[in-house]
Amino acid sequence: MTVEVWLQLIQTVAVVVGIGFGLIQLRQLRHQRESAAGNELLRLLQAPDMADTVLFLHQLPHDLDSAALRQRLGDRFGPVMNLLAMFESLGPLVARGHVPLDMYAEYYRGPTLLCWVKLHRYVEEQRAAGWPTLFEWVEWLADRMRERVGAADDLLAAQRFGAWRSPRDFDRLARRGG
Predict the structure, then answer these.
(1) Residue 61: what are its φ and ψ, rounded to 5°?
(2) Closest to 138 measured CA to CA, from 76, 67, 86
(3) pTM greater than 0.85 (yes/no)
């Protein structure tokens, strides 16, 4: 082989190694971004007023009209609207892919569906009264969470991930439901 062929071969190998390194870096960056998003989601949910609000909402009857909802909530109306606003702000982040849908569902599937089931009538009344886009992302997220409901999604983590031995097992177990 001539020197030119060797140089071309070395250049080709260098390009392939560079592309491989770049792909590894992109994968690590994606993992770091998802970890940061997961930590932020967890922080939001762990705020004491958020957990208290979700528990309070759980006790409410379904389909309360606006007047009955405001009466039942009393001074908790503000925290309930804050909870909806939190989900509203997360919707575009999920839609843009900044927060993976799977990760969002792991943290918020239950609370998102609970909020929409308990508060959709209030939201629809407010939309009809002149605020047509009120909590549109909450509704979008609730729709995505409903689409995800399957037998595997309703298994407790102890059942679903009983065969877990390392973080490498997570995706496999999450896909097959246990």
Answers:
(1) -70, 160
(2) 86
(3) no
